[in-house]
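Listing S7. Sequence submitted for prediction.
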Amino acid sequence: MTALLYLTLVSSLSFQFCSCASSPWRTMITGSHMRAEDHDKIFLLSPDATFSCGFHQLGTNAFTFSIWYTNTTEKTVVWTANPYSPATGYFPVNLYGSRVSLGHDGNLVLTDTNGTTVWESKTSSGKNTTVTLLDTGNLVINDSSNNIVWQSFHSPTDTLLPWQKLTKDGRLVSGYHHLYFDNDNVLRLLYDGPEITSIYWPSPDYKAETNGRSRFNSTRIAFLDDKGNFVSSDEFKIEATDSGPGIKRRITIDYDGNFRMYSLNESTGNWTVTGQAVIQMCYVHGLCGKNGICDYAGGLRCRCPPGYVMVDPTDWNKGCKPTFTVDSNRSQGDFTFIKQPRADFYGFDLGYNKSISFEACQTICLNSSSCLSFTYKGGDGLCYTKGLLYNGQVYPYFPGDNYMKVPKNLSSSTPSISKQESLTCNPSDSEIMLVSASMYGTEKDTIKWAYFYVFAAVLGGLESLVIVTGCVMVDQRQVDFPEFVQGAKHILAVGNATDLVDDRLHGHFHQEQAITMVKVAVSCLEERSKRPTMDEIVKTLMLCDDEDDFHPAYSY
């Protein structure tokens, strides 16, 4: 018995200390290490095998020390040591000689080929310290008394797992985009680029309350529960389109600057987007780079304005560059302006003038060597001169136009679009039913039909609502359909229909009717068992209006 126990202990110690074990470790102990050259091995495995930890390969000779889902089509990384490198999103280490070691002082250290410390846990819990990967995906370091002295859940990178908290001291980062709690206790998305920094979600044009947020809860906590609800202390919420227990999910800020909820189909190993924050992707700052314009025409695309070309044809983050120079040596007669209908570059105005003519606005820009373009809103005579061209976007109903300042000798054949690239539009796996109904005969039937026509228009806030490959295509806008519905739900929770109704109505619509109609439209997109019957829909719509005083919220 003594000999057998001795052999068992020796075998166990050999397994724990071996840096090239053929089987995954359940626990890492002091004095052991993992080598990057053994990257094809999983070093730590969670008890239920959902998560793995080890070196994740980025290229031929580049790896990261990461945690990932074990059984997905591609290794879905949920945490990485020292990830803040905008070039790749992660901090890579070279192959040979790189290792992760748990020292006898209890410090977990990642070193590069030359022995340089790339990352460390900065723990000093001494001998008998252990490192384990929990079923939750949390990598934890325990001292000899089994107290947690460090955990990956407190140092998120670009992903939140269920019950992992995002707090005032943490943020999710992907490239130049950050999800964090601001000083006013509001959860925000920030573009922190090489030259500019700007908040783009929730809309910086409105106060927190107008955006449906609360500034008065200072706990600053956001988390994803096990039923598919992402909730924040500022009252922001995303509910998964497949809400319910038993589904593996994650919240990830993607490289395009939007953060999304993903649900795993375990039979295929693929992820589906089941919720996201930004309703219109063109509102994401930095999406098309400096001088670039995000345009809804023909689908969601980036393009360069007239006289500009892409800096790098493979990377829109680098934006566009002019094919000419604007300097003080040229006279104003050397320049002209090319109109960009419904376009604007958000922020970074050189100046602002109101109640002036178009000609006066144009002259201001011509006389300034710093002026690269101007935006003019004719209805109000508002003039914005632009010294930097960031966050370019074509708004479907923007009440103005942008005018690019270019040399007169610039070839008229210069294309305004150097290259187009489709942006994210993820078809939903959700079932979508299109129902056609024939209603005729009486005045009441006419009113019913009008209401059905109305609520479809109000939901989009535009002239028509057409479902194309799981996305909503409306007046040359293309947005993710589940995302659109989630946005409508969020606005309904605030109780203000203004953000959903066509801007061309200038606020002249019945709030109560509009809210009721959108609620009905959204309810029709729930799971089959939760959808109202046609009879219930008609009764609901009729109750929100006096039959003798029919005022549709949308008219042509």
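Caption to Listing S7: primary sequence and predicted structure tokens for the chain studied. Confidence is low (pLDDT under 50) at residues 1-21, 412-481, 545-556. The longest strand covers residues 51-59.
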